[in-house]
Structures
1.
Amino acid sequence: MQRSNAGLFWPVLALVAAVDFSTKAIASARLMPQGLPHAVYGEWVRFTLVHNPGAAFGLQMGQYSRWIFMVLTIVALLILGRLYAATRPGDILRALSLALVCGGALGNLIDRVRSSSGVVDFIDIGFGDSRWPTFNIADMAVSLGAFLLAWVLWGEDIAAEQAALPAPATIAGESGELS
């Protein structure tokens, strides 16, 4: 009997959302003023509080960005929910990847609902003026989960293609043995 994925999916989703929420609350309280870098590991890793009203990499959609991204996140969560519902029991990698993406999406959605300032970002990586866009735990979970989900779905596509190939023809001799 195969096990349900709920024992993995829901705790991972909740853990990602809780850790994201907690780290954003700490960052908001301790990394003031906004935009001032706090060195963690020299120039390479810093904590810098910023609020992103747009999406990844500062993508904006005008004055209604907040509402547009809230709706898009809810739609994405519904689609991911359907993918989860279609996941075979015991498919750990697929359940884990979906939990990571959903937990991260939920974490950033909570920020959008709570504040018109946007999503709290604080992890700042780079060197000197060459910096990656500032991000948070939810962004890491979404990125890792999306990569893992793409890998899992790619593997499923390959398996489906191989299953659809016709079986190789065999030639049986008089005794019924393969030649």
2.
Amino acid sequence: MAVVEELIRTENNESLSFGNYKLSKKSKADNYEFGGDLYKVKTFQEITKLERNGMFVYESVPGTAVSQFHVTGSGVDFQVEGPKDAQITLELEDQAEYKVYVDGADAGTMKTNLGGKLSLSVELNEGTPVAVKIEKIG
């Protein structure tokens, strides 16, 4: 996997890829249509952020490249790559419990807050994508 030169794109399997952590200057792509929604991505070395219809979806510090980002009724799964470990925050269902998997390994159970935010740390090495899967429990 590599950075997304066009900042955001639709993949053949109806998932999204976005982010370019190699940019030294903040860049954004706005009003990207996907699945009837409008997406906006802001990305560079320090942060990558994705919004859907003006609402928060994904954020990583530092910036990352995300591929195969797929939201389901019960969670989300994607691959992430970056030059160093990243703190990732996702918007999910309010006060729900989720099972988290990182590179196929069980990373435990996490509960979202009132705003539906779930944060996790992912160990990253440039050039090596890491699979993240988050599934709602119950």
